[in-house]
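Try it yourself: sequence plus adenosine-5'-triphosphate, in.
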Amino acid sequence: MSAHAADTDKHRKTERKDAAKAWHTMPVLRAFAPPVETAAQVNEATGEAREIVPWTMPGTRLRTKLSAARRGLYAPALPGAPTSTRQAEILNTAIIGAPTGTNGVVIGRDVLSRTMIAHDPVTAYNASPRLVSSPNVVVIGDVGSGKSSLTKTVYVIRPLLLNKRRAVVFDKKDRGGEGEYGELARAYGHEPIKFAVDGSGTRLNLLDPLISRGTGMVGQMQLLNVVARLAREDQALNEWEEEALRAALRRTVNQYQDGRTPTLADVLPNLSRVADMEDYAGLSSQAIDGLHQAGLSVRFTLNTLLQDYGGLLDGETSKNVDLRGKLTAFDISQLPDQGPAVPAVMAIGHMWLLGRLREDRGWATNCVYEEGWHIAAGPSAQLARANQKLSRGLGLSNVFVFHKGTDIPAGSPGMAMIQEAQTVHVHRQTLREDALWAARTFAFGADTAQQIERLADGHHIFKYSSRPETLVQHIRSPWETQITDTDEAFKAAAGIQG
Ligand SMILES: Nc1ncnc2c1ncn2[C@@H]1O[C@H](COP(=O)(O)OP(=O)(O)OP(=O)(O)O)[C@@H](O)[C@H]1O
Ligand SMILES: [Mg+2]
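Structure, out:
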């Protein structure tokens, strides 16, 4: 471009700018004026462009005439900025709304908006309208990702500050010879209820009257069925065996109607006498034979169970089994990981609790199952599932804590139970397939699975009902930190101050 052409171009630009400026001084028409490019002011010392600051601009003129004011004559005559609303949005980033309200129990902080996250399934379930359709909770995460720390604070310590709230815990993690809730239970004034296979601990009676109080013979039959199945490594009883067991149970209950409480050992002889019951009088000798065989086969199974776990299951329920103030800890940390002991105690405890809660209406109870896959991945899930409605009616909120979901068979009652839970906390899942399982099962957004693989300790993805999930940093008080830090023993061994 020649020097002359450049001059002409500059001249034209100045003319256009002046014309636009003139428009801006005209009442009414100014609304249609094109934007004017504002020259950046240059800082003389540095030569850098300076921002235009409003307080250096001329203010509005004094209003002297009402009619002129109406026409907009006194409004600031500044030209508008050459930008569209869409472009300007980026300069004014929206304030991110808090993902939860303030009702319930404080969990921690939303990492994105830095706002408080509060939720309590019982409060949300009792809200009107209901915010969740089930008060059950699922907590998942790798070993050492902060599950128990969250559960102890958000589902035990904090809700216990509220009126008529109570917690019951099945405490599985061994920490120096006892469960990890021992210290906490003592802080609430009671010793944990300890279970051991060698007979030195507490006993639970499968035929405890509290079990039938909640659910009648149906509940007792469900429980016996599940325990027999657990004893057979998850192989279900067939119809004949179920029938034989039902008949033997009925006979035992009738036998002891006015006497002492029957126990599992009292059912065994009746399992061999199924065939001579009046109800079966019209059956063919083949059918009678079949029932007899079935009764014997269940008897053998239960007999083996009593032989192996007599110290746990043989006899009436120990007197120390009861709800203890605000926090009851069932210490199952000394029971073997393998075999039916842990899921059986969880299943019997669950049924016992349903019966016991009938005596204490008006309370809400958080029941925590640490290593909850013992209940969710096996036949015991049937029980919890079948009694969902009763649970809700009794103010029971079940909290299942486990490592990963891929252990739980698709389409099983355990899976259904998990999908029904309306409050979910997913901690770190380092294995991609576990993270994907969680994202799929709880309908998280597309990027969340990747986020789950990298979550730091004490951080988790939180979701309730069908709301979008949130990345939450769980925050603990100094006392809570002390009581929840499970690596304390390692720190002490390494001489590190906690
Ligand atoms: N909110 C938190 N903030 C920071 N660190 C935490 C938080 N919660 C837990 N941690 C750290 O993670 C460690 C393990 O926590 P926790 O015992 O709760 O994990 P876990 O998932 O229950 O482990 P496990 O699978 O072995 O039962 C704690 O000792 C603590 O160091
Ligand atoms: Mg734990």
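One thing you can check immediately is this: The chain has three domains: 3-89, 106-202+324-493, 217-302.
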